[in-house]
Design brief:
With 383 residues, this protein is an alpha/beta fold. Helices cover 36% and strands 13% of the residues. Helix 6 links the parallel strand 5 and strand 6. The structure holds pyridoxal-5'-phosphate (PLP).
């Protein structure tokens, strides 16, 4: 498998939380796409078919159905689309965590500032963790939604999504999750976890390209959660729905007097996708589906253990909770003053990690070996 990922032979790559490394199948599919586009121009209906394939395959990855998944340009946009689908007529409070990626905080604060929400509770992480009882205290009958990341992009803490979703449901709120550091790392089942809405991009743990993401909306919420905005790909009887039943996508005009969203999560697909990216994303998900998520997770956890043990032995101050406190995710972060300098010194040795606010974040994937972890630890002892 390592031989299908060319970048692994030129560097010690430990930054899959920043961006995963693409296998040849992904880059080859994208290259062939561009070459054919160059020779023949647009292949509109074939490209629509890629969107269907992406929805289908992504649904398989997270235990969802095809009609619950839509393809959008980024995870951040996916979150906005879910937010715009909330019924804010009675409840105007949202609970989030400051361990979330900034988009999953800023969006809600902006909604409060623009008057759409009355209250946004931002739970504060201490030592990289927001305890479950903090969620329990904050979620109440005023709460319309809880927005949480499966795994914190910074501390690597794995939130207890199932329990948080339960708390939300008990009080009549919905659970919206950013699964960017979850899908491709550990097995995810949206039904088991009680997730109502989910977003995930492809360019990290799924080893795909930048510029596309999927939004999931639970079938049970399709009636009650309709977006405030709509485009020609999201309208009922859109071009893809027409092509699916072998109709000409342009057989009748789109309505100009009524804007009814699609009955499926296609309602989130406002307009034309980055077709070459979608083609690459299809291959990336195929790559993920070709390996067992359970064994991938076991390898990632082993690499994480090796890292934590080695870093502790060096006396590093860890931001990432212990494996007992947080059993999941592939992110290990520790304090590193002058992080930029350290990242550069490691890069000079062809070791790739990322620096974040006086911390170093190391994120091994299932394609990394114990030797690569040892190489990093040795380099850190020397710099
Ligand atoms: C958890 C998480 N969500 C969202 C994003 C941003 O995704 P996008 O740029 O596709 O909106 C990131 C980027 O690092 C992230 O870590």
């Amino acid at each position: 498998m390592r031989q299908t990922i060319p970048a692994l032979s030129t560097r010690t790559y430990l930054d899959s939380a920043g961006a995963g490394l693409p296998p040849l199948s992904v880059t080859r599919a994208m290259r062939e796409f561009v070459e054919r586009w160059s020779r023949e121009g647009e292949r509109f209906e074939e490209w629509l078919d890629d969107i269907l394939k992406l929805r289908e395959r992504f649904a398989e990855l997270i235990g969802a159905r095809d009609n619950e998944v839509g393809v959008v340009p980024s995870a951040s946009i996916g979150l906005v689309e879910l937010a715009s689908s909330l019924d804010l007529s009675k409840r105007k409070k949202v609970v989030v965590s400051d361990l979330n990626f900034p988009s999953n905080v800023l969006l809600w604060l902006r909604m409060r500032e623009s008057g759409l929400l009355k209250k946004v509770v931002v739970l504060r992480g201490r030592n990289g963790i927001v305890p479950l009882d903090a969620w329990e205290r904050a979620i109440d009958e005023e709460t319309v939604a809880v927005a949480v990341d499966y795994v914190s992009w910074l501390s690597g803490y794995r939130e207890r999504v199932r329990e948080i979703a339960n708390l939300a449901h008990r009080r009549g709120a919905v659970a919206l999750v950013d699964a960017f550091h979850g899908v491709g790392v550990f097995p995810i089942d949206v039904r088991r976890d009680g997730v109502d809405g989910l977003v995930c991009g492809f360019y990290k743990w799924l080893c795909g390209p930048h510029g596309a993401a999927c939004v999931f909306l639970n079938e049970e919420r399709l009636n009650s959660m309709k977006p405030a905005y709509l485009g020609w790909f999201g309208v009922k009887d859109n071009v893809i729905e027409r092509a699916q039943v072998k109709r000409d996508p342009f057989d009748i005009p789109f309505p100009v007097d009524k804007a009814e969203p699609s009955a499926t999560a296609a309602r989130f697909e406002w307009g034309t996708s980055a077709a070459v990216v979608v083609r690459g994303a299809v291959e990336a998900v195929k790559f993920a589906l070709s390996t067992d998520p359970g064994s991938r997770f076991r390898v990632i956890t082993r690499r994480k253990e090796e890292l934590i043990t080695g870093l502790r032995g060096m006396g590093k101050k860890m931001l990432t909770p212990t494996l007992e406190e947080s059993p999941g995710g592939g992110i290990v972060t520790f304090e590193a003053k002058k992080h930029k300098l350290l990242v550069e010194k490691l890069a000079a040795k062809r070791i790739v990690v990322s620096g974040r606010y006086n911390h170093l974040r190391v994120s091994p994937h299932f394609y990394n070996t114990a030797e690569e972890i040892e190489l990093l630890l040795r380099a850190l002892r020397m710099v």
